[in-house]
Design goal:
Largest sheet: 5 strands, parallel
Shape: globular
Strand content: 5-15%
Order of helices and strands: HHEHEEHEHEHHEHEEHEH
Distance between the termini: 34 Å
Number of helices: 10
Bound molecules: 1-O-phosphono-beta-D-fructopyranose
Length: 305
């Protein structure tokens, strides 16, 4: 019997399509073009906030910051603050919403509308069908991003090279069906690289491997990789790039002997679908190490302080 995490992550293509179908241009709970927006969350939700913030700004729909809830800059002015929280119970997110109440309009994207976030936020967007039993998030996070991507699509052109969610979901079917890249199950370490909106995905990929498999990962913007982090690249270690690969970096990595994975480099797989392959790898590595991905060490479904 496969783990709950494995079962839930495999539903992502269908759940993304459902989430994207919820997007409506006039949905006033979601950021409108021209608004100055901050997107906030913790852990995985913070990384999805980063991905969306970069996409929204690149799509020309308005300045968008992303913060970990504990690091919000209260002196800044926003037209709206959007929080992302699967559980709706994360302490730092609720504290932020409480502090902003009556000052800045707030929206909350959550899987569970029966939690305190319902009262804490001015507006609620519910993806209950994407909720998970697993502690380690996969499909809620990516479905939240799918909905936000689809909402951007409705308001104008996507940034160059960014596909519609429909294409991402098709790619995710492939990501679930195809064999994982060779050599990773025996790797000692993986560094994930991203550019622009895929930086959030690279951060999330690294977190997923640490959470589910207690595996050593690091994550960097691709152009930053030469500025030090490449020093640990070596045979038996890997570098996984989300989105495009900066000129010349492939040759530099090849010289270190590290394995390079670049399947979402243009015109490859959608980077969000590529993240699904990391989800699969995290589960496979946990199992190979005798760990139960449904019972990650020292983690709870939500951090309530
Ligand atoms: C956020 C979160 C998860 C993390 C861990 C603790 O939860 O930080 O991303 O993996 O399990 O909670 P939420 O606010 O999205 O419910």
């Amino acid at each position: 019997m496969s783990s709950l995490t494995a079962q839930e992550l495999a539903t992502q293509p269908a759940v993304w399509r459902r989430a994207a179908a919820l997007a409506e241009p006039s949905d006033t709970a979601l950021p409108q073009p021209g608004e100055r927006v901050a997107v906030v969350g913790c852990g995985t939700s913070w990384f999805m906030a980063q991905a969306y913030a970069a996409l929204r700004e690149a799509a020309g729909q308005g300045e968008t910051d992303a913060f970990a809830a504990s690091e919000f800059r209260y002196a800044r002015q926003y037209d709206r603050v959007l929080t992302i929280s699967r559980s709706g119970t994360t302490t730092e997110v609720l504290a932020l919403l409480d502090r902003l109440s009556g000052r800045i309009p707030t929206s909350a994207l959550t899987a569970d509308p029966t939690t305190p976030i319902k009262q804490a936020a001015d507006r609620l967007v519910v993806l209950d069908f994407a909720d998970e039993q697993s502690v380690v998030q996969t499909r809620f996070a990516t479905s939240a991003l799918a909905l936000l991507r689809a909402h951007l699509e409705l308001h104008g052109e996507l940034p160059t090279g960014v596909h519609p969610v429909a294409r991402a979901a098709d790619d995710a079917e492939r990501a679930i069906a195809e064999p994982l890249p060779e050599g990773l199950l025996t790797a000692e370490q993986i560094s994930f690289l991203g550019t622009d909106w895929t930086n959030g995905l690279a951060l999330e990929a690294g977190l997923k491997m640490r959470e589910a498999a207690r595996f050593w990962t690091e994550s960097y913007p691709a152009m930053e990789y030469r500025h030090g982090p490449i020093a640990i690249a070596a045979p038996g270690r890997a570098v996984w790039v989300f989105g495009g690969l900066p000129d010349g970096l492939d040759a530099q990595i090849a010289r270190t002997g590290a394995l390079l994975v670049t399947d979402s480099a243009a015109p490859g797989m959608d980077p969000m679908a590529d993240l699904v392959r990391v989800h699969r790898l995290a589960v496979a590595l946990a199992e190979a190490r005798g760990l139960d991905p449904d019972r990650p060490q020292a983690l709870t479904r939500s951090v309530m302080l």
